Amino acid sequence: MTLLKSEPPDLATNAPAIPGLAPGAKVTAAAIPPSGVFHYTVDKGSKAKYVAREQLAVVPVPNEVAGETADITGDLYLTKDGKAGDQKSAFKVDLRTLRSDQSLRDRLLPGTLATDKFPFASFTLESVDGFPPNYVEGKEVALTLKGSLTVRETTKPITWKAFARRAGEYLTAIADTDIKMTDFGVTPPTVSVSRVEDGLHLQVTLVGKLGN
Description:
The chain has 212 residues and is mainly β. The protein has one domain (37-210): Lipocalin (Beta Barrel). It is built from one helix and twelve strands; from the N terminus they run ββββββαββββββ. β9 (154-167) and β10 (170-180) form a beta hairpin. The chain starts with 37 loop residues before the first strand and ends with a strand.
């Protein structure tokens, strides 16, 4: 039975390296726009991942299973100290393209998430805490991101723990949070050979490139 296989979560622990920047290279800070607001668009290298615990009928200990997609789009509007207050920073993930290591598991997702009616999950950023005023370009810093996650027709406040770095025209970050599926009106999938626990760990990897 294919559901007996699982893949390790392989979660990232650091923000991605700045694209095109060689290790040890001198970093030139991006010029501050006249508005004081940096507009980053979500670029290639970004992805979203879920990690779930799957209890198999024939195995006493739950497995951790993971799936991900690179179909993530969005815009971030940030000042040198954090989020720009009057512009909407948000990203969305195409749930129809989530893939794990097992096709049978993946075939359950469209029905579980009702992706025919609600193909996207979206997050709207409301605050960024922890960006130091004396930031050194290219250095990784720990941040707290707060905002609202929407799945299907339910929107809930969530907090992400993040690591980010900025240099030149790029901003990179990883952000992690934990949610319960039932909080968003999603029933954890159950089949004859396995059931999935309610809790999900989410990780988003963001690579943002300065736009207009």
